[in-house]
Design a protein that fits this description.
Elements (H helix, E strand, L loop, with lengths): L1 H6 L6 H49 L5 E4 L4 E4 L5 H5 L7 H8 L4 E4 L4 E6 L10 E6 L5 E7 L3
Length: 153
C-alpha cells in the first residue's frame, strides 16, 4: 500500500508539473509587466516635465516679442526695447511692485533677501536684451527702496 501511495504521489503527475511551470511563467510575466509600467511611468513624468519647461519657455519668449520688429524694406530685424531710460527714471522710492510692473512690464527674475526682495529685468551680457539690466529692491513694506540699472541710454 505504501508503494501505491508513492506511485500516486502528486509530484509524480505530469499535469502537476505543467501547472507549476504555468504558475512560474505567470509570475515572471507579471514581474516584467510591473517593471515595464514603472519605466513607462518614469518616462511619462519626464515627458510631462519637459512639456512644462517648454510651455514656460515659450511664455518667456512671448513676453519679449514686442521688443522686436521686422523692417520689410531692409529685411532686418530691429530690436526696440520696451524698457527705456525714461521709464526707469519714472520709478521712484516708495512705489509698490504693481506700479513698477506697470511701468517696466513683467520682470525676468525675482529673488528674496533678508527683509527685502528684488525684481530684475534684462541681462547686461545678453544681446537679446540689448545689454541692459535693471534691479529694483523692495523693502518689507513692498515699497521701492533702491534701484539699479546698467546699459540703458
Amino acid at each position: 500500500m505504501e508503494e501505491n501511495k508513492k506511485e500516486n504521489a502528486l509530484y509524480k503527475k505530469w499535469w502537476f508539473w505543467l501547472i507549476i511551470v504555468i504558475l512560474i511563467l505567470i509570475i515572471i510575466f507579471s514581474i516584467l509587466k510591473i517593471k515595464e509600467q514603472r519605466m513607462l511611468s518614469r518616462k511619462m513624468e519626464t515627458v510631462a516635465e519637459s512639456a512644462s519647461n517648454f510651455i514656460s519657455s515659450t511664455k518667456d519668449v512671448k513676453s519679449h516679442l514686442d521688443e522686436f520688429s521686422y523692417n520689410y524694406e531692409t529685411g532686418q530685424t530691429e530690436y526696440k526695447p520696451l524698457i527705456t531710460i525714461e521709464k526707469y527714471n519714472n520709478i521712484k522710492e516708495g512705489m509698490n511692485e504693481e506700479e513698477v510692473v506697470l511701468l517696466l512690464g513683467n520682470y525676468d527674475k525675482k529673488s528674496d533677501g533678508e527683509n527685502t526682495y528684488m525684481l530684475e529685468w534684462g541681462n547686461a551680457y545678453s544681446p537679446a536684451y540689448n545689454g541692459y539690466w535693471i534691479q529694483i529692491v523692495f523693502d518689507m513694506r513692498n515699497r521701492v527702496s533702491r534701484k539699479y540699472q546698467v546699459g540703458l541710454k
